[in-house]
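Sample intake — DUF3068 domain-containing protein
Collected from: Micromonospora vulcania
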Amino acid sequence: MRSTSGAVLVAAGAFLIVGAVATPLTLAPALVKLPLDQSSVTISTAQNATVLDFSTLSERSGVGLTAHRAVRGDVDAGNADRTVFNVGVRVIDDAGKEITLSTDRVALDRRTAEAVACCAEDINGTPFKHEGLTYTFPFGTEKKTYQYFDNSARKSYPAKFVGTEELQGLTVYKFEMTAEPIQISEIKVPGNLVGSTEPTVTAGRYYANTRTLWVEPDSGVIVKGQEKQLQTLRDATGADKIKIIDATLTFTEETQKQQAKAAKDARGQINLLTGVLPIALGALGILLLLLGLFLVVRASRRGPAATAVHADDRPTTDQPSEATAEPVEEPTVPAGGRHASDRSEP
């Protein structure tokens, strides 16, 4: 019985050890992915911004801005390998007046977070192929340079690792990306707005941005984001003549806390699958394996168990043992009595 129990424990222990090895290698990669049903809203604010009032075609300074970005996953368009995000960004001033509005649709590899060509991706309704990272970093972010996509410039730029910081109770990696001034569109405006004597001219709209991202490396979640954005109208010589927007937009404190919680939750799941669970399975497997081997070895040393002798199997003879030297006594006649074979005389 002990050998059978030992063999069972050995098999169970071996199974758990294999599970401990397989969990981080197969189960974790299958489960640690970008979600299909992503749903989040981040808010950034800027103080003392400068914006162009298109109704009066004049600059306004000292303006407070708020940018709302909503990210929603298109579950039906996603699968085991990709997730699809629909994104809307709306910037308003402190009076609630809309400054800019943009939309984006992008498909991402669920493991690497890299953009993939798929699923009718577009920018502001116009089909466009994204490249590099966007909206998130990969699981296990490294201290290196990544290509990060800029929607306004419609191209990716190097996001360089510049250091490590503590933020919202987390150790985060800091990345910086610089988009040099690039023309993103043309606008017809009164000539005097850009120093021309013509009644109407076509002026180039130029965009530049310095983007800083603080990333929790295990989860790839962007805990804090900041953009120093400048958009201008240029004259025919290429000189900036008027600002459309000049602002530094930064995640609010509440958004940073929200993002930090998301990073902690994701990191906890990753640690469970890659650390806690394999260690627990391995420790229990080794314990069962050793206990099972102990029982098997012990049973083999004891040998087969002796056969029990039942009462019915014992000798039934009433003869005394020949080995005894004691004489056999005859039955004693009670005092005053006589042997059963005696007969009385008449």
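Post-analysis note: Residues 253-302 form the longest helix (50 residues).
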